[in-house]
TrEMBL record:
It holds the Pfam family HDOD. PANTHER family: CYCLIC DI-GMP PHOSPHODIESTERASE CDGJ (PTHR33525:SF4), PTHR33525. SUPFAM superfamilies: EAL domain-like, HD-domain/PDEase-like. Residues 198-384 form the HDOD domain. It comes from the Bacteria. This is EAL domain-containing protein. Residues 1-204 form the EAL domain. Gene3D superfamilies: EAL domain (3.20.20.450), Hypothetical protein af1432 (1.10.3210.10). Transmembrane segments: none annotated.
């Protein structure tokens, strides 16, 4: 059986909005791209339909894809829709005549190019008129050095992307240097600009999350929590009445809860939990928390470990809580009444739930070797991991769309 391996990493603009995703698509755990003729590659590369306008993988954003030199020379990128793809030329590519001719041909066909992990060299000068984006790994080329090159390129219509941006300070420094796009973990780690208190509404949300994670929900208690908060009350009625669940308008909270049931109630609570945190955070981070929640839940369903799926859901969702509230995770977990197994997983990455989070993070980073090792240990069959990842993205997108329609 042949498996597909794919992950994505957001690329943000200066306003910390998602500009596109780098798709880390490989032929398998060895992390290699298939070097085959374009005719044979067509069904292999497009069969999963990652570049469809409705694909949950891209969310209508641009796809940045690494192509080895021979793939470009073979015009493999021409198999993909030019409106959705940015062709990344890898740093180890040789700027020879064959590559130049292929780049020029694809450029004239309407395709856009990025130079990945670029290191300035006169050998690449003739390629620059056909390049849309240049990516600097600021771990290899310091921002100060990259700025010298950026300043020298004012005559070209080239945009610059900073890779491996890991702190807020690096993000600000890159902006000042002239970078317009950013890739790295700065958006998903605490910026620590100031300590933020947990708002009362959020504490209510946590109590709701804990209640809906139980096997038997106390709807009277849930109703009492919701009615304490005007915003929650309003959102609940909007959420239920905007859905296709009912034919008559719902006017009472008890009636709304009865119609929702446990699964939809959990979806609603997860939605408002994310919406009640820091509004200045990139939307991709909110989506990531929802996606991880569903991903973890699906993985434990397919795994051999006897892990409660509700605990897995909360573990995945809360794994980015520190980034949403700009406070260290252990400090936050002391303030909220979570199950000890969840706290162990989030604080120390231990226990079955901790293993699940490690698997999710390895998959997001396209660390296929680690993915294979962990999946073998926790009993999750390889074919299900990619399937669970895709389903989790579809679910998180559905929740976000519900939020827009009910907001």
């Amino acid at each position: 059986m042949t498996f597909s391996y794919v992950a994505r990493q957001p690329i943000l603009n200066s306003k910390r909005q998602t500009f596109g995703y780098e798709l880390l698509y490989r032929d398998g755990p060895k992390n290699t791209f298939p070097e085959i003729e374009p005719e044979k590659a067509t069904s292999r590369l497009l069969s999963d339909n990652f570049f469809d306008s409705n694909s949950s993988l891209l969310e209508s954003k641009l796809a940045f894809v690494n192509f080895p030199q021979q793939s470009i020379i073979n015009l493999v990128p021409g198999l993909f829709p030019k409106e959705q793809i940015v062709i990344e030329i890898l740093e180890e590519s040789e700027p020879n005549d064959q590559l130049f001719d292929a780049v020029k041909y694809l450029y004239n066909q309407g395709y856009r190019f990025a130079l990945d992990d670029f290191q300035p060299s006169l050998r690449w000068k003739r390629f620059l008129p056909f390049v849309w984006i240049i990516k600097f790994d600021i771990r290899l080329i310091p921002v100060e050095k990259a700025q010298i090159f950026i300043d020298s390129m004012r005559g070209y219509d080239i945009h610059f992307l900073a890779e491996k941006v890991e702190t807020y300070e690096e993000f600000e420094q890159a902006k000042q240097a002239g970078f317009e796009l950013y890739q790295g973990y700065f958006f998903s780690r605490p910026e620590m600009l100031q300590k933020k208190a947990i708002e009362p509404t959020f504490l209510t949300i946590v109590q709701l999350l804990k209640e809906v994670s139980k096997r038997s929900i106390n709807y009277t208690y849930v109703e009492s929590l919701i009615t304490q908060d005007l915003s929650l009350s309003y959102k609940l009625l909007k959420f239920v009445n905007s859905s296709a669940l009912i034919s008559n308008e719902i006017k009472s909270f008890r009636q709304a809860l009865a119609y929702l049931g446990e699964d939809r109630l959990r979806r609603f609570i997860s939605l408002v939990a994310i919406a009640s945190t820091n509004n200045n955070k990139p939307s991709s981070l909110y989506g990531l928390s929802l996606q991880r929640a569903r991903f973890a839940e699906l993985l434990v369903v397919h795994g051999q470990n006897q892990v409660d799926h509700s605990k897995a859901f909360l573990t995945g969702m809360f794994s980015v809580l520190d980034s949403l509230l700009d406070r260290p995770l252990p400090e936050l977990l002391n303030d909220i009444p979570l199950d000890p197994d969840i706290k162990l997983a989030l604080n120390k990455r231990e226990g079955p739930l901790g293993t699940m989070i490690n698997l999710i993070e390895a998959y997001e980073q396209a660390d296929w070797t680690t993915v294979q090792q962990i999946s073998d240990c926790c009993g999750v069959a390889q074919p299900f991991i990619g399937e669970c990842y895709e389903q989790s993205m579809q679910w998180s997108n559905q929740v976000k769309r519900s939020n827009k329609s009910s907001g």
